[in-house]
Design a protein that fits this description.
Residues 157-172 form the CCHC-type domain. This protein is α+β, with helices and mostly antiparallel strands. The protein has helices at residues 26-37, 76-99, 107-111, 123-135, 141-148, 218-225, 234-237, 243-261; strands spanning 2-8, 15-19, 23-25, 42-48, 61-63, 67-74, 185-186, 195-197, 207-208, 214-217.
Length: 278
């Protein structure tokens, strides 16, 4: 049995492939290597190990005991067939999108649509609408407007608290009427179940949610509705101290001072006295 030694370009060691006869064709060697290595969706290029000369003809003969190097390349026929298939499928869809532009929804109309899956619009506009609607849950309205360059329908001016215009174009900004407008706080961080929707924007403790509606916390509404109890005056609660108590306190202080004065003093020691001998 004859053999040919082959090595892939990414490997360091050679493997041997046995065959009958003195020579083997390049095409037969490729088929046996692909069957042995279980290769699919690729082509092989064979070249001599000593001279790096590539075998371009599949009918060329390779003598026994020859060392060759194998290179894997993508299948050219498979890639070209995929390109033809994709182009054939993309053609009618592109034509239909161009011919049906008049019936498609605009981007501004698509932003207000709830069911985007069944909306008649281009895929690009649908993606923009999905990005816009999803960003409203995590970002402020101004940031979502910056992403698309449009003014969201629930945008509220941060200067005057009135919707319908951007803060840069606020009519009360820089004028004398800017002080009369009350800035309304946002209900960020408060769950929806803890809020109560109201209609009066001048109500005490009113806030604005993400959809532009006026709300107030339920616990605050209950506190404002409850009547405040009046506390009694301070003069009714205080009572004057009796005179006997003050006199007793003064006498106790004098007794304590007298006891301190009558306490015996420690004996004095003289330096000239001699200590007794033991």
């Amino acid at each position: 049995m004859s053999c040919v030694h082959y090595r892939f370009q990414s490997r360091l060691t050679y493997d041997s492939l046995q065959f009958e006869g003195l020579n083997i064709t390049v095409g037969e060697l490729k088929r046996q290597i692909m069957r042995r290595e279980r290769l699919k969706f690729c082509q092989l290029k064979i070249s001599k190990a000593q001279t790096d000369e590539e075998y371009t003809d599949d009918d060329a003969l390779i003598p026994k005991n020859t060392s060759v190097i194998i290179r894997r390349v993508p299948a050219a026929g498979l890639k070209s067939s995929n390109r033809r298939f994709v182009g054939h499928q993309a053609g009618p869809s592109a034509k239909s999108s161009q011919t049906g532009d008049s019936s498609l929804l605009s981007l501004e109309q698509l932003l207000k649509t709830e069911n985007l899956a069944e909306a008649k619009a281009s895929e690009e506009d649908k993606l923009k609408a999905v990005m816009y609607q999803s960003s409203l849950c995590y970002y402020s309205s101004s940031e979502a407007m910056t992403l698309l360059g449009l003014l969201p329908p629930n945008y509220v001016c941060f200067h005057c608290g009135i919707p319908g215009h951007h803060i840069r174009h606020c009519p009360s900004k820089g004028g004398s009427s800017s002080a009369s407008h009350k800035r309304i706080r946002r209900s960020t961080g408060i769950p929806r179940s803890f809020l109560l929707e109201v209609d009066d924007p001048n109500r005490k403790g009113v806030m604005m949610d993400g959809s532009g509606k006026y709300v107030i916390p339920i616990i605050d509404a209950e506190a404002y509705a409850a009547e405040k109890k009046k506390r009694p005056s301070f003069s009714c609660q205080t009572k004057p101290l009796p005179s006997s108590s003050s006199a007793g306190a003064a006498s106790s202080v004098q007794d304590a001072r007298g006891k301190r004065s009558r306490s015996p003093s420690p004996p004095e020691t003289h330096g000239d006295q001699k200590r007794p001998r033991h």
